[in-house]
Amino acid sequence: xxxxxxxxxRDFLHYLFKIILLALVxxxxxxxNKVREEPTVIKSKKQNTSETPPPPKKPFPSQKLPDVAxxxxxxxxxxxxxxxxxxxxxxxxVKKGDKVIVKPNxxxxxxxxxxxxxxxxxxxxxxVKLCYQxxxxxxxxxxxxxxxxxxxxxxxxxxxxxxxxxxxxxxxxLKRRYARVSFPQGRDIKAWLIYQDVLEADVxxxxxxxxxxxxxxxxxxxxxxxxxxxxxxxxxxxxxxxxADLNTVIKSHLTIVDATRILVRHGPTGGSLKDVRHPKTxxxxxxxxxxxxxxxxxxxxxxxDIGYIRLGQEMGLGVADLKKLKISRINL
Length: 332
Prior knowledge:
This protein has 332 residues and is an alpha/beta fold. Helix content is 30%, strand content 19%. The chain contains ten helices and 13 strands.
């Protein structure tokens, strides 16, 4: 090549400039790609985030036992224990040394138990006591109210006073303990902030109160897991699908529906004793979808009336069809 020619020399310099520019810019793009990380995923040894819908975290203890127990009686501690015993007993769920999270519904401070807005303290305390009897190393009560402080909700509900006597410890949430978690099976939710203690626990026991909800229809077990996430008001944008999505990651080992008294109108916060009914009932199941399905009957509804329960069955999270469930009904 004759570089003495002005035209050819200019072409050569232009070509050389491109090579130098490419060499300088390429590392920038390479570094840019390296910092685009996926959301942090926190997994406990019992959390399954595979691409197919996982089975219940704790399968039904035995095919010979009922899938769901519904027990009615005046002594709320007795009927709570009886409902759990009917599906295999607490030792089917809690092993020696387990760290247990008990999740009641404490949606707000300022409501005492008779208003049927928060989970009954006797039901919670009974579960805590049973967990320790099964050998649990620690049993924590955890919820975050949307109105008032956690300690206010713990105390106003009556749970703090009673459950503390049987060894319960109470979690006051810290911002730094929320972790961004991926939702591989989520249809609408792809990632969300979840309190890490829930993901790290050996056993998660879900104890909702059964009550009316103005948007979701009913608050039951599947909806109760909203209390362990951040920014839960955003769940209301597509509430039924997002509740179902939450339950693909936040797995309830044992669900105990408190229907000792229920709120039939003006939920979730209530405020009038005229809206309270007293079924004096506790429902227990190893599967949250099954527990929620039978709880709808207390409101003269069916599982088909509640969108998140329908979606729970559709997404393989459990069986809602009562015809396909073995149900034990006991009146003490």
